[in-house]
Automatic annotation (TrEMBL):
InterPro entries: Methyltransf_11 (IPR013216), Methyltransf_Superfamily (IPR050508), SAM-dependent_MTases_sf (IPR029063). Its EC number is 2.1.1.164. It holds the Pfam family Methyltransf_11. This is Demethylrebeccamycin-D-glucose O-methyltransferase. Keywords: Methyltransferase, Transferase. GO terms for molecular function: demethylrebeccamycin--D-glucose O-methyltransferase activity; S-adenosylmethionine-dependent methyltransferase activity. The gene is rebM_1. GO terms for biological process: methylation. It is an enzyme of class 2 (transferase). Residues 106-197 form the Methyltransferase type domain. It comes from Paludisphaera borealis. It comes from the Bacteria.
Amino acid sequence: MPATRSETEPTLADLAVCLGCRAPLRGRDACLTCGRSYPTRDQILEAIGPLVGRNRINAAFYDGSGWVRFRKWERLFLTLQGGARRARLQILRHVLAIDRPEVRALEVGIGDGDNLAYLPESWDVYGVDVARTQLVACQERHPRMKGRLAWAEGENLPFADETFDVCYAIGGFTYFNDHAAALREMRRVTKAGGPVVVADETPGMHHAGIGHLIGVPAIDAFWLRGLGLDREFVEMVLQYDVDPEAVARATWPSATSRNIWSRLGYCLVHPGIEASG
Ligand SMILES: C[S@@+](CC[C@H](N)C(=O)[O-])C[C@H]1O[C@@H](n2cnc3c(N)ncnc32)[C@H](O)[C@@H]1O
């Protein structure tokens, strides 16, 4: 029987390179050049160092019970945007603009894989995330993702230059630890001309909260925690003073930026293929 495409395509470990010296790992669990170790557990390649700053808080939140509690609000948000399919296709149309049956794609911050349903099955999708439990859940929901996932940061991707035809991050980007580094990495691992797409909710929505409106932000901390967010995550949200779109404009001067989700979100597309409509 002829091998299926997924059997012939490389696993993520075959594609991975050392984060330190960029030597190809070729499926080995350590770099032959510098000796750095890259264990694989549960078929997930571990290419990550100690997490710091917002990425540490992100991983704790998405790995823990906070995300489980909060998720219903994310689903409600997407429902109010016309449903998950419509809301996600506002972004994924720029990914799908590549319009070829055989595409090697990378999702940064893949979570448990909600976007996979909207991409052609013939595409070879790989994913990274800082939250290991999300990667395990992704494999459980989508068995074809076994061997396709790495525990890694968007800011430090374990791939050679121009490994993927397209790269995208949907949700989570606003609170990435280092936006410029993640944008540079996503561009680096994507082929020249291939689209790189980043979308998330606009930061600062809590400024419309009653606490901010009457000058008592502690009230907003209270209801944000009531939605399920961890204490540390809420502190991060309230102290946040970055404009990720401004960082993107500085890092990717030729990117296009669009409002999505009734102007509550943004979608950045680094040139390559422009989606129509
Ligand atoms: C809101 S979830 C979105 C998951 C999926 N992309 C989706 O659209 O349903 C955000 C994901 O980004 C991950 N994440 C956050 N910061 C990250 C970073 N710096 N690098 C990689 N993943 C990150 C989180 O762990 C989480 O799984």
